[in-house]
Amino acid sequence: MSLKVGIPRALLYYYYFPQWAAFFNHLGVQVVVSRETTRGLLEKGLRSTVDEACLPVKLAVGHVLDLRDRVDYIFLPRLVSMARREYICPKFLGFPDMVRNTIDGIGPLIDCNLDLYRKNSSQYDFFYAVGKMFTRNPVKIRRAYHASLEALRRHCLAMESGALAGETAPETTPAHQNRTGEARAGDVNVAVIGHPYNLYDRFISMNLIKRLKENGANVLTAEQLPEQMARREAQRLPKKLFWTLNQRMIGAAYHYFERPDVHGVIHVASFGCGPDSMTGELIERYARKWSRKPLLILTLDEHTGEAGMVTRLEAFLDMVRWRRNLADAAAATTTKIIAKKAEETTGAPDTSTGVFAAK
Amino acid sequence: MIVKVTYPHMGYMWICVKAMLEYLGVDVVLPPPSSKKTLSFGVKHAPEFACMPLKLNLGNFMEAAELGADTIVMAGGCGPCRFGYYAQVEHAILEDLGYKYQLVVLEPPEKHIGELLGKIRHITGNRSWRQVIRGVRFGYHKAQAVDELEKMAYYMRPREITAGETDLALNRALKEIIAVKAPEELPAAREKAAQIMRAVPLDRQRKVVRVGLVGEIYTLLDPFANQDIERKLGRMGVEVDRSIHLSEWINDHLFLGLAKNMRSSKLAKQKALAYLGHFVGGHGMETVGNTVLYAEQGFDGVIQLLPFTCMPEIVAQSILPKVSADLGIPTMTLIVDEQSGDAGVVTRLEAFVDLLMRKKEIREGSVKCTVI
Ligand code: SF4
Ligand code: SF4
Question: Which of A109, A115, B147, B297 could bridge B245 with an S-S bond, Cβ 3.0-4.6 Å?
Fold first, then answer.
């Protein structure tokens, strides 16, 4: 009987699951993924974490608990750094220890460090350390490693062509699959910017992406931009941002604000998230200064109600359409004055939990 | 052009930085001490979920601008915690508000030491490097002097005969240190300050409990941010020990531990490893490690201080209950934000201190557990 490794459906599962799964499969290790998020699963996480932790961390603990007793190992790599001179977040650095010290009898964790902070560091060291736990054959590890890279490459391509992270099946998604036909069915284009574990967890995001599509919006995400492009856009910042995910988010936000075919932007943040508090602020200020596109800021926490979100989303989409029509009209008649007048009557932003940071 | 330099407050840090800059002939405009008003400026204009030090920094800068400051000097950082991006976000906010500040960020010299030196030159004008080094040393020695006085106060507060006398003496003693303009005069001033402190009558027999303070550096060092926790505890009969002092921090980070026989964060980090296998930014590892150390040194309890949403400390906070259970040392976490009320904090501290006192009495046998 082969060994079972559990992978929590949380945190960077959404970027790396296909890679991890391919690696383990090639080693003959069975992969078990925690169940999709439910209220009950989240509640378990909430009970086992300190109140102050952010929602994604609480949820991740819920997923870890979901795997307990079902697997031989839980895969909880310490994701120190995914790119040179960058980190993800202090909580990613400490996550395996938070789990180990709060959950009694959690069983063995695979918590090797994945650390690409320094020049010349390689992912291989990490995969080798993990592989060694399952085989003594270095050739086998190397093969599994190469297969994992290939799976990651396909996954990235699939995401760039519009597949949602978490929904690309490992090793089966054709890399060239073109989804743009489907993606352009709506009448407005909305960019949704946020951590992958917020956007792609349907329970946590309250089906945000699906809802937008149902309401006639085409959804664009940061993951659809090639990494280099997001990085280049982020270079507008006065200083390089040392959080990989947030760098991608802010780069994508800049990009979409400037792209003429994008009509509005939604920023999804976690309540109490450190990096989001900083880049969210920069994005909001940028929008206010340089763009007329509506910006909706959604802050997710365990109490966020679905009803409230739906109302705000509808109001936002109304605004997006109205603004787009205005822009079209203005372009047609070239009377810019109208747009200006309308702008003054749009009303003051509501800064309590989320704002339309439109002027 | 003469620049008027300001920098954010963090406890008594201003004394040390002011000494250094003025020694080098820099015009310093100190922000008014952090107050409710400072915080309210920060709360109004900073991101809602920014950690509190950012909000106070911002308020400091806004208040300093009114006094004529035109240049901000701040430290930078390369993550993973937010401090490394404070300056940029604060500057963006100030710019939008119409402030015309010039920003000088002293980034840790990982790549180009030349850049850092160039920036120091920019602020200090054409001083020789020897003078710059002397200035830094002067500032460092002032930090040491202040730390020494604070440590004396920790011992004295719970033992003073007349309530409040320690703090009166501390203020007078600090004035002696602040007034010193030349490095040669510092030793005499330190002696005088120490005498002022020693003159306070104490009851050395009094029973006190000892509590270690750990946590995020700004909240630890800044009495406004931590609601004056050291004085509050002192009045409740607690001798505190703070795990981070400014001079130790300078020695660790700027002098790379050159001054020996000084407490260093290295030991704390080693002690943390059993619970936390990797650094997490800020002082998360130190928080865990120092809690272990305090337990080993027989302290009665540990209090962790952090601002709401502080990432490294949330990691540490998740781990402390395990440390506490393993080593049998009671711990308490105090989270500060702009809403923390004074009364609530006092009640919680009193309850904690009460618990520690009772534990201690039972341990020392002064309360007999009579079994009938
Ligand atoms: S980046 Fe934000 S949401 Fe993600 S773990 Fe860190 S604090 Fe939590
Ligand atoms: S240590 Fe905590 S409070 Fe300080 S900057 Fe980092 S996150 Fe903010």
Answer: B147
